[in-house]
Each structure stands twice: as structure tokens, then as C-alpha cells.
Design goal:
The protein is an alpha/beta fold. 49% of the residues lie in helices and 15% in strands. The protein is built from eight helices and seven strands, in the order E-H-E-H-E-H-E-H-E-H-H-E-H-H-E. Strands 3-2-1-4-5-6-7 form a seven-stranded parallel β-sheet, sandwiched between helices. Helix 3 (66-80) runs parallel beside helix 4 (103-131). The protein is globular, with a radius of gyration of 17 Å. The structure holds NADPH dihydro-nicotinamide-adenine-dinucleotide phosphate. Residues 9-16, 33-37, 62-64, 89-92, 112, 139, 141, 184, 186-187, 189-192 line the site of NADPH dihydro-nicotinamide-adenine-dinucleotide phosphate.
Length: 244
């Protein structure tokens, strides 16, 4: 049987790394992307290769840049034709008052968190349509649903992915492709390193589950969505310890 393929954007650490390891453990060929943390990405490649039953290819590049996404996908196409699964995970946060945000800050958040999903979906879809199957899973945030104070651009970018997910699911359901998003609560990754230990403790107490989620729990949910019945599409599924 042909080896299945997955692209994980932002795979050098955190949730993306956990997703890459989860799919590798199931024997997928994993395309590993990040923008700048190439040493960490090499480390993920070594972990996958050490485990034995999987293979991977590094496809670094800024997924917020359409030309770089074209290059990433031309490498994927020449390697194996296309993807079975696309995991749109790369993302950045920006915290502060909206009135303190520059045009450049706004553009960087929207390009990285929202436009990247458009660029990657646009490139992945033709092969999936040809195969009449495929899964697109985007990592979003509960703030895309509820909105967070001092994270307006971030919330808007994730809400944009929610809209894109619902619309694209309708567009692609006749072609046998499922499109879903996982709206994460607070997950224990470097993205939250901006918080002090005290802030983290207070935040964890606000979560009904009483703790931050782990990248592995998110990866397990992504794996579930990649294997869920094909009738499950167009959904924004929360993994937030009961926060919302
Ligand atoms: P991390 O900061 O730990 O990892 C982010 C990853 O994205 C890194 O691999 C980073 O690599 C990559 N990345 C960032 N910008 C780009 C870019 N332009 N092109 C390619 N790769 C890029 O964050 P998390 O693992 O926490 O976040 C993963 C996703 O989960 C994000 O979309 C985030 O918004 C979402 N999320 C996270 C939550 C949390 O509490 N942690 C909560 C809700 C959602 P590099 O540094 O090399 O660019």
C-alpha cells in the first residue's frame, strides 16, 4: 500500500512537533515545516528517523508568504504527488492594546495565522480532488470563537480560519474531502512563555480541568479527526478543558 503523506506547518516545536510525531508513529511520510527554527526542525526529523517505521522531509519556509508556499508544494509534488492530510498549525500570537498595534504587526499576524491557511489549502486541494479524498485540519483557538481582550488581531485571524473551515467544508464535501478545525484552549507550549509563572498558575485555575492542555492531547485529537467518519466535516471542535 502507498505510504500516506502529511504536511505539518510549524512542526519544529509545540503542537506541530507533537502532530508530526503522532503521524510518524502511524507510518506516515511527514513533511516538516517551520520558518526559522531549523535546528529544532532537524531535531524532530532525527526523532522520527530514530523511531524507525516512518520517514520525513524538511520543507522549511514562511507559510505566510505565497511564493514560499508554492516552493514547499512543488517539493511535495515532485516527491510524492501530493498530500493525504494537511495540518495548518503554524501560528504566532501578539498581545497588547489594539491601539498600540502597527500595520506591520497586524499584517504579520493575519498573514501567518490566516492567509497561510488559504495558501496551503489552495496548493493542497487539486491533488486531493484528483484522489477524491483528503483531510484538512487547522489548529485554531477558543479566542477565535469567544474573542480575547488584548489579542484582537489573533482572535480575528482564528475567527477567519473558522469561517474558512466551514465554507471550504461545503465546497469540498462533494469531492470527498473533510475540512475541520480544532479550537485549542491554553496548551503548554512556548507560545505561552510570555506569561509569568504566577500568570500561568492563575490561568490554569480558570480552566475547569484545572490545568493547561498538552501538545500530545491536541495531536491525539488531530489524529482522531484525520480518521473520523467522512460525514464529520465543517466543524470547529473545542479542546479547551471545558473553558468555553
Ligand atoms: P509555538 O510557538 O510553540 O510553535 C509555533 C510553530 O509555528 C513553530 O514551529 C514556528 O516555527 C512555526 N511558525 C511560526 N510562524 C511561521 C511561519 N510564518 N511559517 C512557518 N512556520 C511558522 O506555538 P504552539 O505550538 O503553541 O502553536 C501552534 C498553533 O496552535 C498556533 O496556530 C497557535 O495559534 C495555536 N494555539 C496555541 C495555543 C496555546 O496555548 N499554545 C492555544 C490556541 C491555539 P518558527 O519559529 O521557525 O517560525
Amino acid at each position: 500500500m502507498k505510504q500516506k503523506t502529511v504536511l505539518v506547518t510549524g512542526a519544529s516545536r509545540g503542537i506541530g512537533r507533537a502532530c508530526a510525531l503522532r503521524f510518524a508513529a502511524e507510518g506516515y511520510h511527514v513533511f516538516l515545516n517551520c520558518r526559522s527554527s531549523l535546528e529544532e526542525l532537524q531535531g524532530v526529523k532525527r526523532e522520527i528517523e530514530a523511531a524507525g517505521n516512518a520517514s520525513c522531509t524538511l520543507v522549511p519556509g514562511d507559510v505566510g508568504c505565497p511564493e514560499e508556499v508554492e516552493t514547499i508544494f512543488s517539493r511535495i509534488q515532485s516527491c510524492c504527488g501530493g498530500l493525504d492530510v494537511l495540518i495548518n498549525n503554524a501560528g504566532i500570537s501578539w498581545m497588547g492594546l489594539l491601539t498600540d498595534m502597527t500595520d506591520e504587526d497586524w499584517t504579520r499576524v493575519i498573514q501567518t495565522n490566516l492567509s497561510s491557511v488559504f495558501y496551503c489549502c489552495r496548493a493542497a486541494i487539486p491533488h486531493m480532488v484528483h484522489e477524491k479524498r483528503g483531510r484538512i485540519i487547522s489548529i485554531t483557538s477558543m479566542w477565535g470563537t469567544a474573542g480575547a481582550s488584548c489579542e484582537a488581531a489573533y482572535s480575528a485571524s482564528k475567527a477567519g480560519v473558522h469561517g474558512l473551515t466551514r465554507a471550504l467544508a461545503k465546497e469540498l464535501a462533494p469531492s470527498g474531502i473533510q475540512v475541520n478545525a480544532l479550537a485549542c484552549g491554553v496548551i503548554d507550549t512556548r507560545m505561552n512563555d510570555v506569561l509569568t509563572e504566577e500568570d500561568k498558575k492563575v490561568l490554569a485555575e480558570e480552566v475547569p480541568a484545572g490545568r493547561f492542555g498538552t501538545p500530545e492531547e491536541v495531536a491525539e485529537s488531530v489524529w482522531f479527526l484525520a480518521n473520523a467518519p467522512s460525514y464529520l466535516t465543517g466543524q470547529i471542535i473545542g479542546i479547551d478543558g471545558g473553558f468555553l
